[in-house]
Description:
591 residues, alpha+beta, CATH 2.40.50.140, BirA Bifunctional Protein, domain 2, Gyrase A, domain 2, 3 domains, 8-stranded mixed beta sheet, 16 helices, 22 strands
Amino acid sequence: MRTHHCNELRSSHIGQSVTLIGWVNSARDHGGVIFIDLRDREGITQVCFRPEENSSIAELSHSLRDEDVIQVTGTVAARLVGTTNEKIGTGEIEIIPSALSIINKADVLPFQLDKELSNEDLRMKYRYLDLRRPRMNKNIRQRHKITTAARNYLDAQGFIEVETPILSNPTPEGARDFLVPARLSPGEFFALPQAPQQYKQLLMVAGLEKYFQIARCFRDEDLRADRQPEFTQIDIEASFVGQEDIINLVEGLLQSMFQAGLDRAVPGPFPRMTWRDAMDTYGIDKPDTRYDMKITDLGAVFAGTEFKIFRSILDGGGVVKAINAKGFAGITTGQMNRLNEIAIQAGLPVKTLAFIKCENGEYKSPLWKFFTDDEKNNLVSTLAIAEGDIVFFVAGEWESTCTILGRVRLEIADMMDLTKDSDALNFLWVVDFPLLAKTDEGTWTAVHHPFTRPNADDVALLDAGEYQKVRAVAYDVVLNGYELGGGSIRIHEKDLQAKMFSVLGVTPEEQQIKFAHILDAFRFGAPPHGGLALGLDRIAMLIAGESSIREVIAFPKNNKACDLMTDSPTEVDFKSLRELYIASTAKKDKA
């Protein structure tokens, strides 16, 4: 239906007869001469309808409006002097039409496609229109490029793409499963996979050695800007490998993807830091290192303090830490209230953050009078406090103190626009995660997942029940404060895996019900193996320069996990439920 796309014609085509087809991007009437910008996914070409050249089609062109689908046949001509458009590739030419066909008329649009729209629900309802916009078109095509680059890279490294089942067994992966009733097995359910974790390990037992998959994953959890109920991972697993092998592989993979998506080389190797150093310095296990504002331990400054609050916390094994927000002493009351709110949400046990301001050569703080002169001097020196700075303190248990200051640090960076104009790509690896974490109920849970291997040096600690000290052979790759992916070397021995389940409170009976397949598989010569999963949506979001993964997913759910375009989820009639042996207990408002 066309000879060229709408971003293909150049001055070298002048004089040629061509046929184009696409959407009317805009129409302009210049004293009876109608200019149409014709658009397809590749770009725009101007079509000029002059009454003196073809009165019938010029008259027809007056009826055209935005988003009509038309086909135009005509001659490529040079634009008049002074009317070229350097902003588009076809800006030196236009089409003088000899034929015009209106393929399909468009109704009045629910929103203009050439303007950004703040009403996200309206965008989601008419997503097929939203996707026509150049920004969204670019995002989807950019995602295709990086996905293709990932496939090509892994194929070149000898990895085999294998699809794993969508209907599977419920597993304790850390989030709520989506359940699917099994009509042929009344009262029983499948679960949609949170990740293909067990299947990829079974593929290692099967001897495939190198597996990958662009895998759909499902988690029934609350949503954020970078979270969806269904999402996509680049899932990778390999046999006879250690941590260094996986890290080197994934660095090359990410370099390939970012080169494809941004046409920009990413230097390697990526820096590394331990989980403890990340928490100690940045208060988070996915630190954004594009700006400084590090957390500083003040234990040495207050080692001999008589300030009762700090003294009791330090004597009890706690810490005193602070961050210096340089140049932020002019913080507003609203901003201070917001920081207090963030700190309380993160676990601050009091209502306000302790602080010291340096303004007009004076140190302003309710705490300042409680410090000795030596403590004051050491504090100023340790934190490099200068005119215009404000320091925030937190004292308490180590991890909670780090977490509170980490949240405050992120909020201050946002308030100060510290990364607004940054195009830095600060990749890093976080390693040596704890294997286990204690829940509020006093039980133990896996920090990554139940199949993560304990560090060989810490297995004795696991046997001794000192679970809080056991490190995992686990690693996360981080970019600018976002976790791109995480992985680990896996447990491949039946006895060690059963022990891990036992620590997590999974009884032998439950192990047989939920994990018999993988425990049985480990009996038959399971190889050492490990892997990693990258969040494709999040990588695409960062490459596209977006702040939400919804902007790089063709048909996402909104922030209530609903698809407004197809009006789903929806109620199911009684007959359909009866076939599944299900009765609904939901109460609907009759209003």
